[in-house]
Amino acid sequence: MTLPPRKDSLKWSAYPEDVLPLWVADMDFPVAEPIVRALKERAEGFLGYPPREGDPELKALLLERTGLEGEVAFLPGVVVGLYAAVAAFTAPGQGVLTQLPIYPPFLAAIREQKRTLLANPLRETEEGYRLDLSGLERLAFASRLLLFCHPQNPTGRVFTEEELAALAAIARKHDLIVVSDELHAPLTYEKPHVPLARFLPERTLTLLGPGKAYNLAGLPMGAVVGPKPLVEALKRHLPHTFPNVLAMAAWKVALREGEPWLRETLARLKANRERVAAWARGVGLGHFPPEGTYLAWFKTEIPKAAAFFLKEARVALNPGESFGEGYDRYVRLNFATYPEVLEEALRRLERALEKR
């Protein structure tokens, strides 16, 4: 077991040393050997400015591997793409649609740019979280833009083709532009990921990146894929930067040679997912095992649950309230760690629950 050095890791340095960090979404595992090799080789070469449009071979690979079509533009990161989309397709005061609970930068991109959040919460059913399509239909007339997340963060839903087709029909009917964050697309278990753009190619901008699947968050980079007019509109709101040459090299070799590492990593994550699900059943927490991502979303009976677990269990989790108003009794747990770390964290959490 090789954990990242605390001083080099946000995840491991943000809290005191007695706290086990299962919060920010990166993995504790080393990156794939072909990526390490490619980075060393690239660092020995020319590290000046790359072409402003980035590596054309990487663009072609992205289209080939994802099955997406359209224009490709590189981004400093997927979050930058969310902010740029809100700026490009809405004006201050206008509404932006999204599903709650949602990855906090979605909410920040809306709030910080003085737009109005139009919240369409996921429905919590006995079978798990589902899109509220009737709620989306009621709200769609009030917006031009829907920010979508698939696989969904924090619930881990991988939406079905039927759900995606229904969402696409609503978006087409109401002339919505949909920006679909599909950063976790390679990290699915039993159910394969299908891009939303397959059902709405003319109105979808897909955001991609290597950071989650290949554990490259420290080399931030993303891409947007979609119809050229929409990509060009988004690009006008991007910062004036060049694509990172090391990030492009890492992403390219990940797509070409990273599949064996990814399969092994998914097997490790699946085992951890099943352990977490069994634990949640045993302690009586509300939980649906994620169909994708390495993130577990729990419902508790504890107000400000993350603060409680940090104090009483010395385990750092993401607070549910950061994913939307009304979720303070929820927490998000990152299970992309070694079994020994996960087991100790679960023991601590269980002891804290028993003391209540």
Distance N to C terminus: 33 Å
| Low-pLDDT runs | none
| Helix percent band | 25-40%
Tell me the overall shape: globular
> Structural class of the secondary elements?
alpha/beta
CATH class of the largest domain: Alpha Beta
Biggest beta sheet attributes: 7 strands, mixed
From the alpha-carbon coordinates, what is the Rg to the nearest angstrom? 20 Å
Secondary structure tally, helices: 12
Q: Strand order within the widest sheet?
A: 2-10-9-8-7-3-4
Structure description:
The protein is of the alpha/beta class. It has 2 domains: 6-30 and 260-355, Aspartate Aminotransferase, domain 1 (Alpha-Beta Complex), CATH 3.90.1150.10; 33-257, Aspartate Aminotransferase, domain 2. Helices cover 39% and strands 17% of the residues. Helix 4 packs parallel to helix 5 and helix 10 runs parallel beside helix 12 (339-355). The longest helix has 25 residues, at 259-283. 46% of the residues are buried. The mean pLDDT is 97.
What is shown here, in short?
The chain has 356 residues and is an alpha/beta fold. It is built from twelve helices and 15 strands. Its EC number is 4.4.1.13.
Essential attributes:
356 residues; alpha/beta; Aspartate Aminotransferase, domain 2; 2 domains; 7-stranded mixed sheet; 17% strand; aminotransferase
Chart the SSEs and their pairings.
Elements (H helix, E strand, L loop, with lengths): L9 H4 L6 E2 L11 H11 L12 H11 L4 E5 L2 H12 L5 E4 L5 H8 L4 E4 L3 E3 L2 E3 L2 H7 L3 E7 L11 H13 L3 E5 L22 E5 L13 E5 L1 H8 L9 H13 L1 H25 L2 E2 L7 E5 L5 H9 L1 E2 L1 E2 L10 E5 L4 H17 L1
Parallel strand pairs: 1-13, 3-4, 3-7, 7-8, 8-9
Antiparallel strand pairs: 2-10, 5-6, 9-10, 11-12, 12-15, 14-15
